[in-house]
Amino acid sequence: MSVKITARYVGDDTVELEHGPSGRKIATDLPVDNGGRGRTFSPTDLLAASLSSCILTIMAKAAKRDELDLKGATVEVEKEMQASPRRVARFVGRIVLPKHVTAEQRERLKAFIKACPVHGSLHPDVKVDLAVE
Q1: Does 121 lie in the same domain as 62?
Q2: 3-state secondary structure (DSSP) of residue 90
Q3: Structural domain total, the chain
Q4: 85 and 22 in a common domain
Q5: CA separation, residue 98 to residues 79, 103, 109, 133 (Å)
Q6: Confidence band, pLDDT 50/70/90 cuts, at residue 1
Q7: Residue 14 clears pLDDT 90, i.e. is over it
């Protein structure tokens, strides 16, 4: 299945993105550490957001099969950049699962961090260090 995303430069370091199937739009801005103003998500911020969303989606899908509700689970991730070549070097953070999730269930859910398609699409040099709490 393919999904069309249309990107349009609107000026002032801003790109508008349109999701073809729904028509919904978001915008990106040039980040402060690359000479911009950082008024909204940068393209690499969206990569961090995609990774976080993907992990939670895959974990919730797996938990649902076991009739486990993950409502309220969160992912906090920080994106670390490297200078040369300029790219994402590492994502570090934590996944906080609801208190009713047992230690055994947490261990099983950890496996889904690497099962997420976004994680699998990252260059092998990009480190993903997420603690599960």
Answers
A1: yes
A2: strand
A3: 2
A4: no
A5: 24, 11, 12, 9
A6: confident
A7: yes
Tell me, what's the pLDDT at 32? Answer: 93
Comparing C-alpha atoms, which of 35, 45, 97 is closest to residue 68? Answer: 97
DSSP H/E element including 119:
helix 117-121
Place of tokens 């603690």: 131
Same domain, 11 and 30: yes
What is residue 119's predicted lDDT score, i.e. its pLDDT? 95
Residues 105 and 51 in one domain: yes
- Indicate the pTM of the whole model: 0.90
Domain region containing 14: 5-34
- How long a stretch of residues is the chain? 133
Q: Give the residue carrying structure tokens 């200078």.
A: 83
For residues 29 and 84, membership in a common domain is answered with no
